[in-house]
Amino acid sequence: MSTSSTSGTAGSAGNPGTSSPSLFPSLSLLKLLPGAGSDFGPSASDLVAHVLSHERFDAAADAVAPRETFRGVTVDEAMSDDYVFPLGRTGQSIVLMGYRIAAGFIAACAADEWLELAHRERLVRGLSADAQASEHLAPDPAETDQLLDRTAECAQRILDPVAREPVISLFETHYRGGREFLRVSWEGLPEDLVHASRRPFVALADGSTPRREKRDYDPYGLEGTDDYDVDRPLAYREKIGPFLFTMTYRHEYPQVDDERLGTAFAVFHEAGSDIVAAVVKLQLVKVPPLTSSADLVYTFDTYSGEMLSLALAATEALGPKRLCDVFNTYRVIYISQWEVRKPWRGEGLGVALLHQGLERLPVDVDGRPNALAIAPEPYQTEMKHFETLPVVLHEELRAPAERLAAYLTNWLERSTLPVATHFFVPMAKHAGIGSAGENARLIDRIMESEA
Question: How far is CA 90 from CA 85, 87, 107, 369, in A?
């Protein structure tokens, strides 16, 4: 009953004469709905997060009753719950099943898109764009009558593939980034990691014209080939036990500074098959003297979204004073990616790879010792919807990272890694510049506090 009255109200409110045709019959509302295999429209996590942002209603108790835990709760179970749905700004509300709220969300997105297109078409036709004229914009009444039924189908189609999955799985990436990183970057043979044309020039001892070195690069000068052009990546390879260890290193912005930001990739291939076993990506960061966390934000903002996220996460983890001490004293090495393929997990291979990579990094020319920055997030939390999720789900999403942080802390205190100090950064919270406005808000806060 509530569905049909809502649909009828929407049609009459937008079109005073419901039998009159739309002002813009060429603009189809229903064609703005996501179809099967569409690249646009909300994802399953968008829909579930929107539904969970409402208060859950327990019909048996006739009262609002949030879930005490989401452990073991599937998407279908959460979407089949009832929720309190506010009726605009009227102060009144009704109770709807999660699936119906998801359908309404898709309908609202389509209606907003239709209005935006209609406004543009008014301007193209030279019609008035004032608010009073805009009040009478409405899609075809015949289409609005079908809207909620069609969006219910859309919601079901989007949610069905994950209906039996745990709710928590929608807001974690489960190593997806790590697997993608391995697949895209490291499936080639080690010789392919640095193309021959990108190998460094090596000056000959007799002073003749420099030639291109064809062998794998030796960063420590053991073969007498330690001269390099900072604009070119370096390649290094050796056999360690049953694995081939390959390492590349390059300066990211040599035009800014000779060693301000570098990237090192280290990988273990199984010697007999060249199958990737483990990989780590390290970002080497060295900044000019800092007097405030705002200095670090300004510096990293010139590089990339990931580096800006590192500045924000380090500010949150260390605080402004210790942040300046650390970045002024140390060359900070951030573990950007660290992944071990499943057959080798739990065998200590990741630790061995990290150790080998850190030992072979170029020595800092200014003599700064190394500080290791780690993001302890085995299941990187999707922060896009984090703040809108129920509080109990916040805690459950944080739990894996907290367990890993405790494990890593214990391991690092006993390890012999060639680093002078280490610290953890909550990168998942800040990953992706502008994600849910989180980074933008934190930047504003830093700038205001240190202006």
Answer: 12, 6, 20, 62
Domain spans of the chain, in order of start: 2-171, 176-449
352-355's contacts with Cβ under 8 Å and 24+ in sequence apart are 352/268, 353/245, 353/266, 353/267, 353/268, 353/278, 353/279, 353/280, 354/266, 354/280, 354/417, 355/416, 355/417, 355/418
Residue 149 Cα to chain centre, angstroms: 33
Which letter does DSSP use for residue 199 in this model? S
Does residue 404 contact residue 378 with C-beta atoms inside 8 Å? yes
pLDDT classification of 345: cutoffs 50, 70, 90: confident
Strands 261-270 and 201-202: what pairing?
A: unpaired
3-state secondary structure of 419: coil
Does the pLDDT at position 18 exceed 50? no
Compute how many other C-beta atoms are within 10 angstroms of the C-beta atom of residue 213: 18
Nearest to 193 by CA among 262, 246, 261: 246
- E strands, 273-394, are 276-285, 331-340, 370-374
- Tens digits of residue pLDDT in 280-323: 989 999 888 888 888 888 888 767 778 888 888 899 899 988 99
Q: Roughly how many angstroms between the first and final C-alpha of the chain, as a whole number?
A: 57
